[in-house]
Amino acid sequence: MSALFEPYALREVTIPNRVWMPPMCQYSAAPEGPDTGAPNDWHFAHYGARAAGGTGLIVVEATGVSPEGRISPWDLGIWNDTQVEAFRRITRFLVSQGTVPAIQLAHAGRKASTDRPWKGGAPVGPDSYGWQPVAPSAIPFADGHPVPTELTVDGIQEVVGQFADAARRALAAGFEIAEIHGAHGYLINEFLSPHSNHRTDEYGGSYENRTRFALQVVDAVRAVWPQDKPLFFRISATDWLEKDGWTADDTVRFAADLKAHGIDLLDVSTGGNASGVHIPVGPGYQVPFAARVKAETSLPVAAVGLITEAEQAEKIVANDEADAVLLGRELLRNPSWARHAARELGGDVHVPDQYHRSV
After folding, report:
1. Distance between CA 195 and CA 201 in Å, rounded?
2. Which residue in 73, 117, 131, 326 has the fewest CB atoms around it within 10 Å?
């Protein structure tokens, strides 16, 4: 049997295959009004198509734990019950197709309050639904970005509580897995990296201090997330900086800490915290970082990064470089990628009855 289409169990949740969809923001929620941050018909159709296409696990895009935690005013959020009810429609359909629904809980930190990418992605102000970003230190992400407000210790604890509240709502919305967003230069990543964290209190300086906020978030979410359901953490394994950044060595060390605090799988990406860096992009370019964590720790991992071909994905799992693969852009191009890959590799995948003629 194809390794890519073997089921995968974590705690009491079994994912039907190793073809997973990572969080990819759609920037399509209402920026104001009673439905602010709530998923709508676009989100239902978008995620529903990938579930009908055989994807084993779908991680819904970065979802703000608070209004100011969104990347853009058009992002999803899960800070109120209106949003919870709207998510239930999506999770019910995903489950009906045999797909496990997951959600990424996020706070954008200093990279918040930006426009949609197809509008340029520049920071937006109050006249365009924007707000003042917060961060571990008053350091802007890049030229043209505002100086963020440095979080106080009380402010940090408020955010920790927001993550826990968001996890409770995610459970009520029908999600089986929650993922904490600690990657791509957003708030948790900003605390982890000495490039963006210049604090001198208990949340800055040493490795132990810089990881304190992340682990407090993990503990707060794990405390409210059921013990029979998995909890993921997404990490940028490196800032791609030659010095004064988060490194692959830090990631391996942190993976052990995360496992000890109840994380079940590390979703391994890279970059996003430093502007202007050179990233050697190519097929599977981030897989070695996931493979190293898997080889040097006991924490399961998922790999991401220009994984496009069925045989490529099969080898990653079969060679034990990762426990699953996350296909981003390829699933945007082809919602039924899993079904096509199963046909190529001789694997089994769910096909809706309505599509029986396509088998």
Report:
1. 16
2. 117
Mutual orientation of helices 212-224 and 248-260 as an angle, nearest 10°? Answer: 30
pLDDT digits (tens, 9 = 90+) for 104-119: 999 999 999 999 999 9
The residue extents of the domains of the chain are: 3-353
CATH for the 3-353 domain, from 3.40.50.300, 3.20.20.60, 3.20.20.70, 3.40.50.10700? 3.20.20.70
The pLDDT of residue 359: 74
- Any idea which residue has 């629904």 for tokens? 101
Q: Is 296 exposed, middle or buried (0-12, 13-18, 19+ CB in 10 A)?
A: middle
Quote the CA–CA distance of 133 and 119 in Å, as a whole number.
20
Distances (CA, A) of 118 to 26, 28, 39, 115, 237: 11, 12, 19, 8, 27
Mean pLDDT over all residues of the chain?
A: 97
**Separation CA 190–CA 21 (nearest Å):** 25
Tokens of 112: 């918040």
**Residues catalogued as catalytic:** 186
CB-based contact 287:276 (threshold 8 Å):
no
At 142-193, the pLDDT tens digits run 999 999 999 999 999 999 999 999 999 999 999 999 999 999 999 999 999 9
pTM attached to this predicted model:
0.97
